[in-house]
Amino acid sequence: MALPSVTPDWAFERQHWRRGYFRVAGVDEAGRGAWAGPVTVAVVILPGLAQDYPFRDSKQLTAAQREAFAAEVRRVALAYAVEHAWPEEIDRLNILGATHAAARRALARLDPHPQALITDYLKLRTDLPLLAPPKADALSYSVAAASLLAKTERDKLMLELDGKYPGYGFAGHKGYGAPLHRAALRELGVSDVHRRSYAPIRALLEQPQSLFDEEEA
User: Fold this and answer.
1) Which top EC class is named for this enzyme in its record (predicted)?
2) Is residue 5 part of a domain?
3) How many domains does the chain have?
4) Is 9 assigned to a binding site?
């Protein structure tokens, strides 16, 4: 698989650099739309050298490319951290609140600490200068690097959950609402790692026939 034609650059980072903020952290998440498993947030500070990297939005890459590039992120980064918000926290705070909480935990672990942030449209409450453009994972090297770590780390967790909760197919669909996942829920019911506040899971808990009805419709 060839690399995507749309490549990130340093345009957003340069906006911070011009203001004297050189430790810029990219922030991205994986798993916000999934029905099961955690939402995972990664933060990465790359060296401010304005050099080209092979990093791309993780959604545009094969699994092998993501793993290779994630390893390169870890090798070159000045600092990085990954944090997870599990279903209990998601159900308690809602998905946006849980994503923000995981991002704050990840940012607190960075050493050195960042001076400014770029997120993929995640409008964090922070005292740090923040840029939150849409599609930043495809446009910013720092956010693309974070997307690679978030995606690969979450995928590893979903593989582990596949072994702990056999039959749901987590290794394949990674907790998203794929037909195989729906079928497994009809057969096995809701597991401990499903997000009970999500409408399809909540409906299944309240009315087990709901997924059958949805499938027939």
Assistant:
1) hydrolase
2) no
3) 2
4) no
Q: Is the Cβ–Cβ distance between 143 and 28 less than 8 Å?
A: yes
Q: How, if at all, do strands 116-119 and 24-30 pair?
A: parallel
Query: pLDDT tens digits for the chain (217 residues)?
Result: 455 457 899 999 999 999 999 999 999 999 999 999 999 999 999 997 778 898 888 888 999 999 999 999 999 999 999 999 999 999 999 999 999 999 999 999 999 999 999 999 999 999 999 999 999 999 999 999 999 999 999 999 999 999 999 999 999 999 999 999 999 999 999 999 999 999 999 999 988 665 555 554 4
Is 28 marked as a binding-site residue?
Answer: yes
Dig out the tokens for 186 from the structure.
């009809």
| Pair 150, 211 in one domain | no
Do 147 and 193 sit in the same domain of this protein? no
Distance between CA atoms of 154 and 161, rounded to whole angstroms?
Answer: 10
Report whether 29 belongs to an annotated binding site. Answer: yes
Q: Using CA atoms, how far apart are residues 78 and 106, in angstroms rounded to an integer?
A: 14
Look up the domain containing 192 and give its range.
161-216
